[in-house]
Amino acid sequence: MPRQIIIDTDPGQDDAVAILLALASPAELDVLGITAVAGNVPLALTQKNARIVCELAGRPDMPVFAGCAAPLAHTLVTAEHVHGKSGLDGPVLPDPTMPLQDRHAVDFIIDTLRASAPGTVTLCPLGPLTNIATAFQRAPDIAARVQEIVLMGGAYFQVGNITPAAEFNIYVDPEAAKIVFGSGAPITVMPLDVTHKALTTAPHVAGFRAMGTHVGDMVAAWTDFFERFDKEKYGSAGAPLHDPCVIAYLLEPEMFSGRHVNVEIETVSPLTRGMTVADWWRVTDRAPNAMFMGDLDAERFFALLTERLARL
Ligand code: RIB
Ligand code: CA
Predict the structure, then answer these.
(1) DSSP codes of every residue in 219-244
(2) Which pLDDT score is estimated for 227?
(3) Catalytic site residue 242?
């Protein structure tokens, strides 16, 4: 029985690869819908990009919903410096022809969780947590119905990528993150500590190109574009494939390792806004509320990714 998931996303080249990985794995994952949120680029572009990726995967039937256009309490901060003006810079892509759903993404999340048996739908946020937090605020009953929230966001040892203290997804909407991490729903976190180990080195990009498929060529072009920011900043050997770690966890959780610890979100200090204060060393008596990942088997990750993408 495939696992039912909702992907909440702000595409973003790495979001795009995550969506492709999920849609390439129908035996394991039943994607009920894709909800777009403002993040890497404004909502008008993230909802368009989500549809471009679905069509690239041969899934123009996938329900795609537009969600929140701005964070709960801050003005939107975007990341065109990383993802380009379109959010999917690298290759030239045709505009989507598949429709955007009329229903708001938050209503889709609420309706789906209420209509499904408790504990049977997993939420996979890949961007700022605005849609998820808004759904929990509008329908407090649904948090207890969530099977698991597997999200990309935060950092502990890697600290920050948009400020010295914070990772982008959490920084954009820290109030939303505070609501989600305080919701009581089971949470699994893919922080920069893990995603910075999923680097698309040159051999991996060559592997995408060697597929000889349109999808392989698109993913190679995206990772070629996407990596320049991290190479300049961190001197890293490739682009960190942040968001695909969420989907890889659903497919092969044993390639990851981490700790069940307390994670609190800084929402007050301008200096450390959006910091995920993870009690990794358990120095407080604060109750653990998240499985915070710290390591992954990178070779296994890329073997899975390459094998699955080659199916599309
Ligand atoms: O900090 C990395 C995260 O921010 C990724 O999800 C990337 O797509 C951006 O949303
Ligand atoms: Ca993202």
Answers:
(1) HHHHHHHHHHHHHHHH--SSEE-TTH
(2) 82
(3) yes
